[in-house]
Amino acid sequence: MERRENIVVHTLTKAERLILEEIYPVGSRVQLEYMEPDPYSKLKPGDMGTVKMIDDAGGIHISWDRGGSLALIYKVDRCNCQMKKEQMDAFFNHLFIMPFENCEKMKSWIEKKLRPAFPAMTFENDTKGRLELRLNVNAFEMKSTQIGIEYQTDENGHLFIKKCGWTQDDPAKDKISKTQKPKR
């Protein structure tokens, strides 16, 4: 049993652990809602992080975007899961079927969908037919998480996604991996 001041931490039951792993899967993005006061922590509500593991005592170990790692204590501290890998898979699938009038409209849609979970994300390499999206955090058990999008435009300037997916951080490999293909 561990203590954080007057807080007693117990060992999780198997059912509790399964529930926590479902709510906060490794690699998911979370936002801090509440944490018992800790004189050594600079975290505050609204801070974002990535789940690293869940321990047997119910500690949700998180790598925080503002730096450092700190576990939240089950039934004491609270965080909200902002994005799971399954939600990213759905994002990729929706990206294929969304009609976009132009690149700016596509970027706007992407921002609306991803900015809450990835506040530091940036668009890079916006060249004709290719867009790189750097999420600027480690997430979904990947380092330097980024997304590559290849698109084409029709005679009216409308955008259609050819492929998109996770990309390598190595510029020499300039290709999309784990590519999603449109479902028609």
How would you describe what is shown here?
With 184 residues, the chain is α+β, with helices and mostly antiparallel strands. The chain has 2 domains: 2-83, SH3 type barrels, CATH 2.30.30; 85-173. The protein is 19% helix and 34% strand. It contains 3 helices and 11 strands. The strands form 3 sheets. It has a 5-stranded antiparallel sheet. Strands 8-9-10-11 form a 4-stranded antiparallel sheet, with helices on one face. The longest helix is centred in the middle third of the chain and has 13 residues, at 85-97. The model has no long low-confidence stretch (mean pLDDT 84).
Features:
184 residues, alpha+beta, SH3 type barrels, 2 domains, 5-stranded antiparallel sheet, 4-stranded antiparallel sheet, 19% helix
Residues in helices, as a percent range: 10-25%
Average pLDDT, to the nearest integer? 84
Poorly predicted regions are none
Q: N-to-C SSE series?
A: EEHEEEEEHHEEEE
Largest sheet: 5 strands, antiparallel
Organism: Blautia pseudococcoides
Protein name: DUF4314 domain-containing protein
Pfam family, one: DUF4314
InterPro entries: DUF4314
Concise synopsis of the structure shown:
The chain is an alpha+beta fold. The protein folds into two domains: 2-83, SH3 type barrels; 85-173. It has helices at 14-23, 85-97, 103-114, and strands at 2-4, 7-9, 29-34, 48-54, 59-64, 69-73, 78-83, 122-127, 130-134, 146-153, 159-166.
Describe the secondary structure blueprint for this structure.
Elements: E1 2-4, E2 7-9, H1 14-23, E3 29-34, E4 48-54, E5 59-64, E6 69-73, E7 78-83, H2 85-97, H3 103-114, E8 122-127, E9 130-134, E10 146-153, E11 159-166
Antiparallel strand pairs: 1-2, 3-4, 3-7, 4-5, 5-6, 8-9, 9-10, 10-11
